[in-house]
Amino acid sequence: MSLKQMKEAFVSNHNGTSVLEITQGLCLPVFCILCRGLLIILSQHLCSLHTWRTRFFIDFIFLIVPLVTTLTILSSFVHLEQLAVIIFGAGLFYQIYCRRTCYIRVPVQKILENFLKISLESEYIPAISCFRVINSAFTAVAILAVDFPLFPRRFAKTELYGTGAMDFGVGGFVFGTAIVCPEIRKKCMEGSRFYFFTKSLYSAWPLVFLGIGRLIIIKSIGYQEHLTEYGLHWNFFFTLIVVKLITSLLLIFFPPNKSWIVAISITVLYQLALDFTPLKRLILHGTDGSGTRVGLLNANREGIISTLGYVAIHMAGVQTGSYVLKKRSHIKDWIKVTYCILLTAISLFVSLYIVQVKIEVASRRMANLAFCIWIVASSLILLSSLLLGDIILSFAKFLIQGAVVPCSWKLVQSPTTNKKHSEALISEAERKKPSLCLITAINRNQLIFFLLSNITTGLLNLLVDTLHSSTLWAFLVLNLYMFINCLIIYMLHLQDKTIKFW
Length: 502
Known about the structure:
mainly alpha; 2 strands; 1% strand; globular
């Protein structure tokens, strides 16, 4: 067996892990981001941490390192990781409360009453940025870590049925893109209703270039492939192109706030087609029933047909974005939003259990009904957790006058100061451009970060014998790989550069 065949076998035929374990893993970055914010608040009160090197180090330690350890050496101790982070965060919050500069002699109940009266900056929702960055960072770690033995095989992409951590990565990416799609942000010029569709055609060309480029490079250098993932020629970039074009066309006829109807209709009809037509047999065994790869459809049947599921996930993301991005300014409104999203996520998890027991288990390969429900439910859990973390962080900032945390809500009205003074504090903070924040940096150049991660992953696979690497060596390589990728993106951000090809 050649090295290529060994690597392909190493990432194939896996059955995934439990939905609960993946959900627990998704919550860890939320706790880490909250701890990072609390540490910045406390450090601003005690000393100064305004150098870019210090901020980059803090962000890397709190955002990237926990992801690497959770997916590798501490994969069996997620509960202990979460407990340690929660205890650390509670200690930071207690110190902030004890050292508060506002409401020093006021009872807790009165402080909470005043906090619920404040207003927040309504133009920017940090939870969405954090959602997209967590998914991008997770994907960047996983695409290289999966080639090393220290990466648990249960986290790898599943072969046919099951839920793997890497399966969430692809679905979460589609969902996160949909939340901030142009149709929701209403960046529309006056004119034809087909404006967004023509814009989508134009903006899709970088994905076409990346998809074709990846295909040519992989075929020319004999890089390992997981054939049943998307097919012989298809890849995730092609899926993104098709999803982008179909959803843009659908949103010409359906308003964003009715996208849930489209999402449900597509998933239900698609599942019915899988159950009562030869479609499932086509995906699994080809047109002749023997697994043939002759012809364009047979060669890429998994990637082409599963696009329907990703379209449904995208439309569910559009519905979520149309709700979350509504203009709100009061903290009470955001508490209600968090509650509604969390309740929806729990309802979807109950539906997932019923669907998996009565109809069919989740399958990334087919992107069936259970898979779509799982992706949307997990995404909503992550989003609601991030919103809750932002609310807690806002309360901590409320206790320390003048506290500024990058990629977090700004308090635009504080009962302890007059409105003019509060606005002055915000203006002063906003004038410090660019903000020293790795989350903002990755979110700003997300496609470049994803492309850079894919390139460095390919180079490392060609240079390093990943299959026979020791645990320590693999762990060091993964951290160095993420450090270099993050540093490049961070330096672009410090130079105030956003790289776009359209």
